[in-house]
Amino acid sequence: MKKRPKVLFLCTHNSARSQMAEAFLRHYGGEFFEAHSAGLNPSAIHPYTYQVMQEVGIDLAAEGHRSKGLIEEYFKPKVHIGYLITVCQRAEAECPSYPGVSVRYYWEIEDPAAATGSEEEILARFRAVRDEIAGRVKAFIAAERPR
After folding, report:
1. How confident is the model over 44-74, as pLDDT tens digits?
2. Residue 93 belongs to what H/E stretch?
3. Among 27, 68, 61, 58, which Cα is nearest to 47's?
4. Does the annotation mark 119 as catalytic?
5. What CA–CA distance (Å, rounded) separates 105 from 112?
6. Alpha-carbon gap, residue 117 to 125, rounded angstroms
7. Tell me: domain 6-144, CATH 3.30.2130.30, correct?
8. Catalytic residue among 7, 8, 10, 11, which?
9. Which residues pair with 9 in a beta bridge?
């Protein structure tokens, strides 16, 4: 079996967007890619992230998702990352270069954890972001999967 390229989704906290992207890539493209995520300043996965992913049949807790830091997990000598995809403006600005990356993309995606309003309004924001990420991941797989 040919080695799958590593894809690293990078965000500020690794609590919502990057977790969703990692889970969707594993779900839809796990046979083609090795999915990872990390944060510049990792914090706990947001409870609504768990909830909205469960709504589409992906159980982050059962799959062993946890918040990970970029330095501790991936910024090591001789670790090659096929694709680095930053999913927030801060991560894009604060990580201008990354050794060992073949291809880099920036997906500007709104932070659902910054949403305000009622619980239902905030959940609606998380669902919209989840659906946007699912679409972007599917498009990424279609464009980049090894043939």
Report:
1. 999 999 999 999 999 999 999 999 987 765 5
2. helix 89-94
3. 61
4. no
5. 20
6. 10
7. no
8. 11
9. 37, 85
Q: pTM (2 decimals)? A: 0.93
Using CB atoms within 10 A of its CB, is residue 37 exposed (0-12), middle (13-18) or buried (19+)?
A: buried
Strand partners, 7: 35, 83
In the residue annotation, 11 being an active-site residue is answered as yes
Q: Any idea where the domains of the chain sit in the sequence?
A: 6-144
Choosing from 95, 115, 122, 123, the catalytic residue is 95
Question: Which tens digits make up the pLDDT trace of 17-50?
Answer: 999 999 999 999 999 999 999 999 999 999 999 9
Residue 95 designated active-site: yes
Block residue for tokens 């965000």: 11
List C-alpha distances in Å: 103 to 1, 84, 116, 118, 119.
22, 6, 34, 39, 38
Residue in the structure block whose two tokens are 């060992």: 100
Active-site residue, from 8, 23, 88, 113: 88
